[in-house]
């Protein structure tokens, strides 16, 4: 049955959902990569779709910006629609010298300045980590497509415009491979409710170097990442068969 934020019917979502932040990205993914597509959610214009990729049923749905937003949608997808795997597909900023624009970043772990995981973990530190098998398959998919990939700890920030300007240098010192706004929350929700999650991002800008991609280049790198994400799902199915 419908939830406060999703009006899909039971069975409308596949067991694996790809989640970009922008609902229009969800529409783009559905229109570009999936066949036999049907729209399954339109509450608050947070569009969700289900279709097939090489015969495999896959859903895609936007999650909005920030940990509170992604946490709502991830929780309802898992507990109300039986989703087993959630893969965030988005963009991030870089701080390390060896991470460049156009690279693909996979969040093996996710640090954060948010308190949400402490709230769910009895005020203790929670190690927000991705599912190992999904991560392994994503790395293999990237290598097979000759796409540069960095795997490591990403940082999920609560603030896009952070007044603590020294943060970027600190994140660089601790080896953070990408800065975004959702992964730590997604991993916490998945752990709490028994699902699998992973985050894969394209590097759209370098925070310390002041570099950024044009709109056209962002689209190209996004498409590269999407092929990796879709191949990850197929590789995961094959490994679990």
Task: Characterize this entry briefly.
By secondary structure, the protein is of the alpha/beta class.
Outline the structure in words.
The chain is an alpha/beta fold and 241 residues long. The chain is built from 7 helices and 10 strands. The protein has helices at residues 23-33, 67-81, 116-120, 132-144, 167-173, 183-193, 215-240, and strands at 16-19, 35-41, 48-53, 56-61, 85-94, 104-112, 149-156, 178-180, 196-206, 211-212. Strands 1, 2, 3, 4, 5, 6, 7, 8, 9 and 10 form a 10-stranded mixed sheet that branches. A hairpin with a 4-residue loop joins strand 9 and strand 10. Helix 4 packs across helix 7 (215-240). The model has no long low-confidence stretch (mean pLDDT 97).
Distance between the termini: 30 Å
> What is the percent of helical residues?
25-40%
Determine the strand fraction and express it as a percent band.
25-35%
Helix and strand content put the structural class at alpha/beta
- With helices defined by DSSP (H or I, 4 residues minimum), what is the helix count? 7
Beta-strand segment tally:
10
Q: Characterize the largest beta sheet: strand count, sense, and whether it forms a barrel.
A: 10 strands, mixed
Return the string of H and E elements.
EHEEEHEEHHEHEHEEH
Mean pLDDT over the full residue set: 97
Shape assignment: globular
